[in-house]
UniProtKB/TrEMBL annotation:
<keyword id="KW-0808">Transferase</keyword>
<dbReference type="GO" id="GO:0016747">
    <property type="term" value="F:acyltransferase activity, transferring groups other than amino-acyl groups"/>
</dbReference>
<dbReference type="InterPro" id="IPR050832">
    <property type="entry name" value="Bact_Acetyltransf"/>
</dbReference>
<protein>
    <submittedName>
        <fullName>Acetyltransferase (GNAT) family protein</fullName>
    </submittedName>
</protein>
<dbReference type="Pfam" id="PF00583">
    <property type="entry name" value="Acetyltransf_1"/>
</dbReference>
<dbReference type="InterPro" id="IPR000182">
    <property type="entry name" value="GNAT_dom"/>
</dbReference>
<keyword id="KW-0012">Acyltransferase</keyword>
<dbReference type="InterPro" id="IPR016181">
    <property type="entry name" value="Acyl_CoA_acyltransferase"/>
</dbReference>
Length: 149
């Protein structure tokens, strides 16, 4: 398996993000409707297995200190292999090298596996922020990254 960067315009990234959005709508009972996916400055990393992109996740700049994890998704056939954990670690490394000291993220209350992943990787609950304020299904987390020596 290989983790590599891909542009937001990459067709394989687009396919995975579309699958992620369909799965989210199904999981939340369609409560969020047909949200338009905007890639605003998201830097994507993908997991490649045998030449096929099987997982993706993105990092979006919020401010000089803070990045946001976006669009984490692993194809169903590849779940349970630790790929999301490896991808999240790679996103944390990317954020660190971009100078971020904090990573935050949002997920849904209806995604217990995602919540379990984030908390087991050291993310702590924080108040909902930004576009997620007012969404009763949003839960947000943050993690302090190591400081460069």
């Amino acid at each position: 398996m290989l983790i590599e960067p891909r542009p937001a315009t990459d067709p394989e990234v687009d396919t995975l993000v579309a699958a992620q959005q369909r799965e989210l709508r199904a999981a939340d009972g369609g409560l969020d409707g047909q949200a338009t996916v905007v890639h605003d400055g998201i830097r994507y990393l993908v997991v490649v297995d045998g030449g096929r992109v099987v997982a993706c996740g993105g990092l979006q700049w919020i401010d000089a200190d803070t990045g946001e994890v976006k669009r984490m998704y692993v194809r169903p056939a590849y779940r349970g292999r630790g790929l999301a954990r490896q991808l999240l670690s790679a996103l944390e490394d990317l954020a660190f090298h971009r100078g971020h000291s904090v990573l935050c993220l949002e997920t849904g209350t209806y995604l217990p596996a995602a919540i379990g992943l984030y908390t087991s990787c050291g993310y702590q609950p924080i108040p909902v922020y930004g576009e997620y304020v007012g969404n009763p299904y949003s839960v947000c987390f943050a993690k302090r990254l190591p400081v460069a020596a």
